Amino acid sequence: MKRLNPVMLAGTGSDVGKSLIATALCRIFLQDGFHPAPFKAQNMALNSFATPDGLEIGRAQAVQADAAGIECSSDMNPILLKPAGNLSSQVVVNGRPAGNREAISYFRKVEKEKLRSVAHTAFDRLAKKFNPIVLEGAGSIAEINLKDCDIVNMSMAAYAGADVILVADIDRGGVFASAYGSVMLQSPEDRQRIKGIIVNKFRGDLRLFEHGRKMMENICGMPVLGVVPMADHIHIEEEDSVSLAKKSTKPVEGKINIGVTLLRHISNFTDFNVLELHPDINLYYTSSPDDLDKADIVIVPGTKNTIDDIAFIHEAGLDDAIVKAGKMGKTVVGICGGYQILGEYVADPLAMEGMTAGIKGLGLLPVKTVIEREKTTRRSSFRFLNDSRECFGYEIHMGHTVSQNPVCTFNDGSFDGCIGNGRCFGSYIHGILDNRAVLEWLLKPFGISVVNNIPDYAAYRENQFDLLADWVRKYVDIQKIYEILEA
Description:
By secondary structure, this protein is an alpha/beta fold. A hairpin with a 2-residue loop joins strand 6 (79-85) and strand 7.
């Protein structure tokens, strides 16, 4: 198999679809007999994932690794920023927390040079094992005020010797200006690295853009490699909270309504994607007590800041709605930070989440939590309640919670979570709902037919990767991309 140049998917802005195109290329290269791997030097996301060796990376690179048919590693996303509020983020370096940083200190040149070295070393390790490397940029490549401290866009492309494909979003408007500006604001050297443009998120008749395509090629001085229509029918897990804006926000009459509490610092909301696959289920995100009252099942999700989100729940009046649901016998589930919130008390003696030393939880579960310095990050294999089937998930949390009524039993005999009165339980395990045993318990009150109509989630994800690859092959000149990468 011939060696291909690395390729970077860079963007004219945030949320233009470069993650999706990168995922598609990972699957296409795999289908064509290559051994690809994803790479993003620096990512900012609250949806993260645990590698097999217990390290933490952004969810997008974990998804791209799945599309490439390989296990994810911290080398694929060596620097992860997890916003914690108050203009600060937790910085995760090579899969391990390295403390919190305010934005102003993070962008200092000395700090960035250290992180640049981390990113380069991780890329070098990855490039020795895989072919090609599919790099993803961050935000816009035309943020010229941040050029000196860039470690993820054109400076990373230069280090990697990557051919750059610019992804432009036509759905938001101004696609000519954003593409032309993104190209022309580069230095002459960086401009030479950009080998083509993909226009993404097109709506309507593609023939209407044929003249526009030629105009873009003329003004930008490079080929338009494809015009990709909006792919709303394909479901690939997303890591950015921007994607929450596209999800349901209201209960729907005649459906099984599952209300997810929309927290300030919500994280890992991919935990609930499986529930969106059933036609009779309406999964919606809300911070309205009235709308949460109408839910048949209430879920309190993960959060990057448990204490602040408990305060938010009280301020918004969501506490009464959640407690009322539990007392009425409705199913109430807390995942990770949501598990802590459903307990009696959360203590933060080391001020890991701010200056509040502790706060009362909602009291639906008889547990107390202590936030600790060390983060637990690991894959999990377990049994749910009395079900003998093996289940899988992953943990990413900084709290320790002791329970007398565990809900999960790990293979080593240790326990996780707590089940309270009625149908209320909490667990630290992300991805717990992807397991058939848990779904059957969750949906049992609504009849077995509901459970049977939810597909196997692992098989469903694989099928979505193939559909995405077919979609991008149809609208992008993949042969031209190969010619660019072989040059």
